[in-house]
Amino acid sequence: MSESRLRVAIDARPLQKGFRDHAGRGIGRYAVEIVRALARRDDLTLELWFEPALPVPDDRVPSGAHVHRFPSLHLPMRDRISPQLSVPRGVRASRADVFHFLSHGDAPARMPRNAVVTIHDVILEIFGHMYPTARTLKYRLARTLEAWAIECARTIVADSNATREDLVRLHHVPADRVHVAHLGVDASFAPPGAAAVDAVRARHGLAGPFVLYVGGIDARKNVLMLLDAFARARTRGMSAGVPLVFAGRIDHAPELPALNERAAALGIADAVRWLGFVSDDELPALFAAAGVFAFPSLYEGFGLPPLEAMACGAAVVSSTGGSLAEVVGDAALVANPNDPAAFGAAIARVLADDSLAADLRERGRLRAATFTWDRCADDTVRAYRASLARAPRQDARS
Question: How far apart are CA 384 and CA 296, in angstroms?
């Protein structure tokens, strides 16, 4: 097919504050960045479709994008019921060549024939046993609707090859229907000046080297293993004066008491620091100040934090969970997420070897620079065009 100008509609509800908490999470960040990157292109026209009951975030609507609202529905569980009823009506009203849902959890089970769906991960299927809500009817219904959306999507965009392989394995999706579009690192994540690093050290009382973790502390994030690994790093010669620093909205997390108990049992409670929420403006300096950025996750569909840390000049020790080995490549030391001895040894090695740390910082910065949102948009548009070139799928629910 010719490289004609495409008319692309986007389910832009993840841009709206109050829609399923996406705005403050990874899906919300993805939505902001991919919409901006697509709007910069001259080979497509962009439509953005919003939830009618919530304000349209004008500051997130790029110039030239056409704004629409899905039909109104006054029903309970709006965020779950609406995709099944009002969203298909909106899709039928659109004259777009492609209708892109930015998360399969937001897509309708009755998938329009021109649908493209981004699937960031299938964490809730693989690790559902770790979450108490997995036993509820609401949870099971949500997974069933998502499975139907995966089955009916004409084309799927995945954040990584790891997610692509999971879809083929778990849902028997034909591999040629899944296109990988790696996420990008925002330009605000860059090596900061020495003054910014000094300021963040002074603000948090971090005078010397420290091990840093940024993110949530739910079971999948594997932070209990990180505590074990940190304790083992001490036995490998890491100074007892090196703290393990946690940053993120974790003050009221239900897992926090168990982590404090584990730190006490390991004899490292005095070394653990909880900074709480750190703004994106401050994060680059915190990353750059760290002796090691440690990311022990059991599974990631992509894993932006290690890349963002690399972009800011951090030396990274990462697990190989899910896509992480694929993302960090040879620019980080990696270890099995179930092996605290190996993970602790990697942390101790980086802290003890200045030349290794410097090499990781340089390689990490160069690798992170290859992950851009414009490249993500390029791969996404290739998926659009491949979808249009593919014969329509016949499906009873489409």
Answer: 34
Determine, yes or no, domain membership for 394: no
Looking at the fold, whether 157 and 268 belong to one and the same domain comes out as no
- Whether residue 357 contacts residue 350, with contact meaning beta carbons closer than 8 Å, is answered with yes
Q: Report yes or no: 288 and 314 within 8 Å, Cβ to Cβ.
A: yes
Q: CA nearest 322: which of 294, 342, 302, 306?
A: 302
Contact present, 96 and 8 (Cβ < 8 Å): yes
Q: Helix (H, G, I), strand (E, B), or coil: what is residue 61?
A: coil
Query: What's the predicted TM-score (pTM) here?
Result: 0.90
pLDDT tens digit string along 61-99? 999 999 999 987 665 555 556 667 778 888 888 889 999
Q: Which residues contact 279 (CB under 8 A, 6 or more apart)?
A: none
Q: What is the pLDDT of residues 270-314, one digit of tens each?
A: 999 999 889 889 999 999 999 999 999 999 999 999 999 999 999
Are 207 and 309 found together in one domain?
yes
Output the six-digit token pair for 237: 């010669």
CB 288 within 8 A of CB 214: no
Segments of 110-224 assigned E as strands: 115-119, 155-158, 178-180, 211-214
In a domain, 258, yes or no: yes
Reference 305, options 358, 359, 248, 346; nearest CA is: 248
Question: What SS3 state is found at 314?
Answer: coil
From CA 315, how far away is CA 121, in angstroms rounded? 26
How many Å apart are CA 264 and CA 112, to the nearest integer?
A: 54
Structural domain includes residue 396: no
3-class DSSP assignment, residue 12: coil
d(CA 253, CA 186): 27
Residues 360 and 381 in one domain: no
Residues 235, 322 within the same domain: yes
Coil vs helix vs strand at 52: coil
Number of structural domains (the chain) is: 2
Is the same domain home to 128 and 101? yes
